[in-house]
Design goal:
Elements: H1 12-18, H2 60-73, E1 77-81, H3 84-95, E2 101-105, H4 110-123, E3 126-130, H5 135-141, E4 147-153, H6 165-174, E5 178-182, H7 187-190, E6 200-204, E7 218-222, H8 225-238, H9 244-254, H10 257-276, E8 281-285, H11 295-301, E9 308-313, H12 316-326, E10 331-332, E11 342-344, E12 365-369, H13 375-386
Parallel strand pairs: 2-3, 2-4, 4-5, 5-6, 10-11
Antiparallel strand pairs: 1-7, 6-7, 8-9, 9-12, 11-12
Bound molecules: pyridoxal-5'-phosphate (PLP).
Residues 83-85, 109, 111-112, 153, 157, 182, 184-185, 204, 206, 216, 218 line the site of pyridoxal-5'-phosphate.
């Protein structure tokens, strides 16, 4: 597939709207059609038109998304998958063989942890967990010669720990490993890991990239041709690709990513301010707070601090569950990154599967995905729910 780089140097918002697609030469359509086709007519045997042969290998709607993802991450090649986990599994198959080792965040997204613990381990790829905010611990977790990937999430879920991308890229590269950054929580708008030395960016585009809670998808972005070649081969060989309709929805979401993220951050800041002065809140966890241990690193590597806020309530698990069940605008549900505000209890919901392990989260913890509704409505909703 051809990859265009003529949007380099343009602003983020311009790339979000114009990269990846030129108006259709025959109709002038400004938005790529949903190419609901499995195959493509050939002009003579092997005579492909623009390289399209079969839609697992490439589809024009998916190409538009992949080029946009690459342009927004400052990469050269993007790859779109059926889900974030499909992207992650394809990445591991592309870059590891049985016997290899991966360093994981000790509070990685539960599904990522399960992928490594149950699926990659059964195939012979081992992992060690380390806290992302402790560079020395990550270095110590590396097994020289065997560690192929250092995997980073920043901010992490749900405790919003911050890993120093630039420092960890150095640690990975010293050991001959690659740094993979899951950029789902920050989004391409708030954080650009490739520019800080990361080798691969992973997204669950289900979250802020898609942004409207209407599609599940995943992405990988790189800026190295040899890496792109290996990932592209495995994307086609494994086949866990994004379908054209899913690709179209994600592309539609990306066009407003910058606007949405600004509002997510504005609203999150107001929510943090409210919670910080509330007598029944014992701790507010947000990388934008000066007392957050990762604040200085976050301020250096993020444009703003994002739309995810976690907090601990006085009264333990019972009160945390009650707050989650009392909000009316914050919808009780898993996932995050959509326009609507969500609330959840990690201990009983997203992180129930890690109870009893060192990934266990406090029982009095509540996680918010702050949406883009009217801020005063969100504040009133939380105030009422806290009682
Ligand atoms: N990475 C992070 C940080 C996530 O939050 C998620 C999903 O919740 C994933 C990866 C997995 O993505 P998906 O659910 O699209 O497979």
């Amino acid at each position: 597939m051809t990859h265009h780089h003529d949007h380099e140097g343009q602003g983020f918002e311009t790339r979000a709207i114009h990269a990846g697609y030129e108006p259709d030469p025959t109709t002038g359509a400004v938005i790529p059609p949903i190419y609901a086709t499995s195959t493509y007519a050939q002009d003579g045997v092997g005579g492909l038109r623009n390289g399209y042969e079969y839609s697992r290998s490439a589809n024009p709607t998916r190409t538009a998304l992949e080029e946009t993802l690459a342009a927004l991450e400052g990469g050269t090649h993007g790859f779109a998958f059926a889900s974030g986990l499909a992207a992650e599994d394809t990445l591991v198959r592309s870059l590891c063989v049985p016997g290899d080792h991966v360093v994981l965040p000790n509070d990685a997204y539960g599904g990522t942890y399960r992928l490594f613990a149950k699926v990659e381990a059964a195939w012979g790829v081992e992992h060690t967990s380390a806290p992302v905010d402790d560079v020395d611990a990550v270095r110590a977790a590396i097994r020289p010669g065997r560690t192929k990937l250092v995997w980073l999430e920043t901010p992490t879920n749900p405790l919003l720990s911050i890993g120093d991308i630039e420092a960890l890229a150095g640690v990975a590269h010293e050991a001959g490993a690659l740094l993979v950054v899951d950029n789902t929580f920050a989004s391409s708008y708030l954080q650009q890991p490739l520019a800080l030395g990361a080798d691969v960016v992973v997204h669950s585009t289900t979250k802020y990239a898609g942004g409207h809670s209407d599609v599940v998808g995943g992405a990988l972005v790189v800026r190295d041709a040899a890496l792109a070649e290996r990932i592209g081969f495995h994307q086609n060989a494994i086949g866990a690709v994004a379908g054209p309709f899913d690709a179209w929805l994600t592309l539609r979401g990306l066009k407003t990513l910058a606007l949405r993220m600004e509002r997510h951050c504005d609203n999150a800041e107001q929510v943090v301010q409210l919670l910080s002065s509330h007598p029944d809140v014992v701790q507010v966890i947000y990388p934008g707070l000066p007392e957050h241990p990762g604040h200085a690193v976050a301020a250096r590597q993020m444009r703003r601090f994002g739309g995810m806020v976690s907090f601990r309530v006085r009264g333990g698990e019972e009160q945390a569950l009650a707050v989650c069940e009392r909000t009316r605008i914050f919808t009780l549900g898993e996932s995050l990154g959509g326009v609507e505000s969500l609330i959840e209890h990690p201990g009983r919901m997203t992180h129930a599967s890690v109870a009893g392990t060192d990934l266990e989260v406090p029982a009095d913890l509540v996680r918010l995905s702050v949406g883009i509704e009217t801020a005063s409505d969100l504040l009133a909703d939380l105030t009422a729910a806290l009682g």
